[in-house]
Amino acid sequence: MKILGLETSCDETAAAVVEVKGGRFKVLSNIVSSQVAIHRRFGGVVPEVAARNHLKNMIFVVDRALHGNGLSKIDLVAVNYCPGLITSLIVGVETAKALAYSLNKPLIGVDHLNAHLAAVYLDNPKIKYPALGLLVSGGHTQLIIMKKPNSFKVIGQTLDDAAGEAFDKVAKILKLGYPGGPIISRLAQAGQADAYALPRPMINKGHYDFSFSGLKTAVLYLVKGKKLSQKQVKDLCASFEQAVVDVLIAKTLKAAREQKVKTIILAGGVAANRKLRANLAQAIQKELPQVNFQVPAIEHCTDNAAMTAVAGYFVYQKRGADNLFKLTAQTD
Ligand code: KG4
Ligand code: ZN
Fold first, then answer.
1. Is there an atom of ligand 1 within 6 Å of 302 CB?
2. What is the pLDDT of residues 126-169, one digit of tens each?
3. Beta bridge pairs of residue 136
4. Please, are residues 183 and 176 in contact by the beta-carbon 8 Å criterion?
5. Does the model's pTM come out above 0.85?
6. Which residues of 136-164 are buried (b: 16+ CB within 10 A; e: fewer)?
7. What angle do CA 169, 174, 178 make, to 5 degrees?
8. Which residue among 85, 167, 173, 216 is best mutated to probe the pocket of ligand 1, counting the most ligand atoms within 8 A of its Cβ?
9. Contact at 8 Å (CB) between 208 and 251?
10. Following DSSP, what letter does each residue of 10-74 receive, concatenated?
11. Is the C-alpha dihedral spanning 119, 123, 124, 128 positive or negative?
12. For residue 114, how far is its CA from the centre of ligand 2 (angstroms)?
């Protein structure tokens, strides 16, 4: 079975073809056209501009993803239909509907968050259930129990800013540019993580929820009215990154222990963060050595459509195709 995945939930126009053979996934193409260069000058994503650029790019991205694979060989079309920027999602959903209609092939609407978690299957790992997903993206921070693939129960989430959002906002405070995550983590590599004592919000609370807005405000007060040296900026980036990573790890280990999971899956754009990947792997190895740790390849952590295709496959197996005439884009 060959699945065409489409993703347009934010500022990446993406299309991918994933083949499923004997239960194993193989990425045949994975095209991502990023609009970062366009939105950078505004300091963040401008929804109307994003949607117009999806419209402009979509057909080229689909064409490249299909190159050599042939549209007629596609068996299933999967598209992220929620959550995200509504005008951006509409472009992907309506394109997917038109393709499925003209090909007379089944269509699946995929939840973008579930797709992030499904990215882990692209490497065909052996996953033992129950599994705990730590989903960290620009808009979400969630701890999710998975009893099997495509079964999700949220047990904790952020009460204010998402982890990625905190990276982006702190980068804005430090006037470093957009998107903040990759910039902060690059500068952090040359900084000292214990240079600034920043709070670890909710780290010792009994629940699985997160809060990152206080941490962002702590950075804001630290730098207010000051001109920081390059070394101080690097130290602050490292200290902030460590604070986020410490909270994410503490809550994940607590949930994994109490929920008695066999696997921990790290996913979402912030899962591209090397410090988080390394520190979480080390902490699991040290404190829960019987628990298996899985994280997608870095290029499958940030928004892409290969993850959409895999998630679409699981949804299709579970409940069959969506009604082409009823599927619509939704904000959440
Ligand atoms: O999953 P994603 O690509 O899009 C959403 O669904 O939101 O996540 C984007 C978020 C942004 O906030 C970005 O700053 C963050 O992921 N991000 C990172 C890194 N790469 C991307 N955060 C920390 N470290 C990174 N290396
Ligand atoms: Zn995403």
1. yes
2. 999 999 999 999 999 999 999 998 899 999 999 999 999 999 99
3. 141
4. yes
5. yes
6. bbbbbbbbbbbeebbebeebbebeebbbb
7. 55
8. 167
9. yes
10. SSEEEEEEEEEETTEEEEEEEEEEE-HHHHGGGTS--HHHHHHHHHHHHHHHHHHHHTTT-GGG-
11. negative
12. 10
Query: Is the peptide bond preceding residue 47 cis, with omega within 30 degrees of 0?
Result: no
**Local confidence pLDDT in tens for the 332 residues of the chain:** 999 999 999 999 999 999 999 999 999 999 999 999 999 999 899 999 999 999 999 999 999 999 866 677 899 999 999 999 999 999 999 999 999 999 999 999 999 999 999 999 999 999 999 999 999 999 999 999 999 988 999 999 999 999 999 999 999 999 999 999 999 999 999 999 999 999 999 999 999 999 999 999 999 999 999 999 999 999 999 999 999 999 999 999 999 999 999 999 999 999 999 999 999 999 999 999 999 999 999 999 999 999 999 999 999 999 999 999 999 999 98
Q: What spacing in Å lies between the alpha carbon of 270 and ligand 1's midpoint? A: 4
CA of 180 to the centre of ligand 1 (A): 8
Local structure of residue 136 (DSSP, 8 states): E
Q: Which 8-state DSSP code applies to residue 324?
A: T
To the nearest 5 percent, what fractions of the chain are helix, strand and coil? Answer: 45, 20, 35
Distance CA 262, CA 277 (A): 18
Task: Starting from the CA of residue 301, give the closest ligand.
Answer: 1
Q: Which atom of ligand 1 is nearest to the CA of 180?
A: 14
- Please report where in the chains the tokens 């920081």 appear, as a residue: 228
Nearest atom in ligand 1 to the alpha carbon of residue 116 is: 1
Ligand 1 geometric centre to CA of 332 (Å): 19
Query: d(Cα 219, Cα 28) in Å, to the nearest integer?
Result: 43
Residue 210 gets which letter from DSSP?
A: B
Half-sphere exposure of 102 (CA within 13 A, CB side): 8
